[in-house]
Amino acid sequence: MTARIEGEFDTIVVGAGTAGCIVANRLSADPSRKVLLLEAGGRDNWIWFHIPVGYLFAIGNPRSDWMFKTEPEPGLNGRSLAYPRGKVIGGSSAINAMISMRGQAADYDHWRQLGLTGWGWDDVRKVFRRLEDHFLGDSEHHGAGGGWRIEAARLSWPILDAVANAACEMGIPRSADFNTGDNEGVGYFHVNQKRGRRWSSARGFLKPALHRSNLRLETNVVVDRVLVENGRAVGVRFLQNGVPIEARARREVVLCAGAIGSIQVLHRSGIGPAEWLKPLGIEPVLDRPGVGRNLQDHLQQRAIYKVSGGRTLNEIYHSLPRRAWMGLDYALRRRGPLTMAPSQLGIFTRSDSHQERANIQFHVQPLSLDKFGDPLHRFPAITVSACNLRPTSRGEIKLKSTALDAAPSIAPHYLSTADDCRVAADAIRVTRRLMKQHALATYHPEEYLPGPSVGDDDASLAKAAGDIGTTIFHPVGTAKMGRADDPLAVVDERLRFHGLEALRVVDASIMPTITSGNTNTPTAMIAEKGATMILEDGK
């Protein structure tokens, strides 16, 4: 028997992640609008959600991570990758790398050129500024006083400074700010932290709004489906503590469950490609072929170099006294390695001279390990990972089963195009050239991965990219925004669902093409812009 939640709501928001927290905050600011926010995870009442280095314990932990895996990937020589997604209020912003990165102006101008009015760089820059509380203060590029706190990293490493100098020797300019529209350059990342603590979307937007009587948050809820009547979304059905419950929405249902979660809900609702749904016994409500297709992600080639004559986190990790000092430094000053984002130094450059703009991004770390979740190596080393910012490979996400606890099929199809294979090979070449610069000579870098036995020809490097390539957790695009004449478009430029009334998708899944950098801050922008559209259209 299905229960009915008390009262009716104007808007139901599915997912209290990066996007959902912002949407719920903005909509509930109107006291006449009653908002229900549903989150599959729980509260962020665990210390490792707040200490920056806590991502080491949160990722791969079922308390905080959906624990997804990709299908075996032909482009990765048959390997399957862990695919972390946040399962807690704040979503992936509670467990991610904390790197605040907008991408490039040309990314958004491309969206505008696709016919998506209001999504060009000049349009979205205003939204980014409105969101921010930036340590650089109010300026042409940044805002102050918003809920999205951004600060400079609280420590630097001499060996990372040397890598930055090596990049400059290659002709890459210094950059004090990657978020002005052109991120080509080398510098330390800006991070979503406040005084050495992680700053998630829940902390910045949800918690300040929870006192509002017109906002109701329900946690540990798994949304089964959107309820559709006569071509209109009228509510949702969800499971909480084993009890099926329905809630009704007078105005709209807004999906903010991300590039994976929103697709799962839509497919269980009978909304998506009919040829995928019917074999699972799901009667199609709306045959929309783009729902679950167009998956894009950033694949990095994780190169590791042994070094000597300089300090890395590897030595600190294996020294009990140093680890004790590290904890004390954080407790007393909120400084030191416990404030570290997973990557500190960024380099944006071109894989070859024919590129019109920066097309690869380096994440440089003063540490190394075999794979995420393993202990750090016992030898001093750094990781120099290069990713293709604008991959042409396209994947898909679809249900394997209608069971609510069944993980979906995630197939990114990494390195499935000749262009992506070429950029991956060139990125390894750029990495090798970087590590041979004079600025790094005193550290005697020695290639550990992919290894000196890997040749410099295209075939060898493409295979090596498949061997060492791994995701940096940026899935987007599975409910792409597009014009009505685009057969794969799922939502329009106001994020309204094509073919259904009163349903919107407001999260990373709506990106038609991936942004040139980390995707969390663009997702926050999408949420801010989407919430504004919902309020405007509701007048």
UniProtKB/TrEMBL annotation:
Segments forming domain Glucose-methanol-choline oxidoreductase N-terminal: 9-299
Molecular functions (GO terms): flavin adenine dinucleotide binding; oxidoreductase activity, acting on CH-OH group of donors
Keywords for this protein: FAD, Flavoprotein
Highest taxon listed in the record's lineage: Bacteria
Pfam families: GMC_oxred_C, GMC_oxred_N
Cofactor needs: FAD
Record: residues binding FAD: V88, V223
Domain Glucose-methanol-choline oxidoreductase C-terminal: residue ranges: 391-527
UniProt keyword Oxidoreductase, yes or no: no
Family: Belongs to the GMC oxidoreductase family.
Name listed for the protein in its UniProt record: GMC family oxidoreductase N-terminal domain-containing protein
Natural source organism: Rhodopseudomonas palustris (strain ATCC BAA-98 / CGA009)
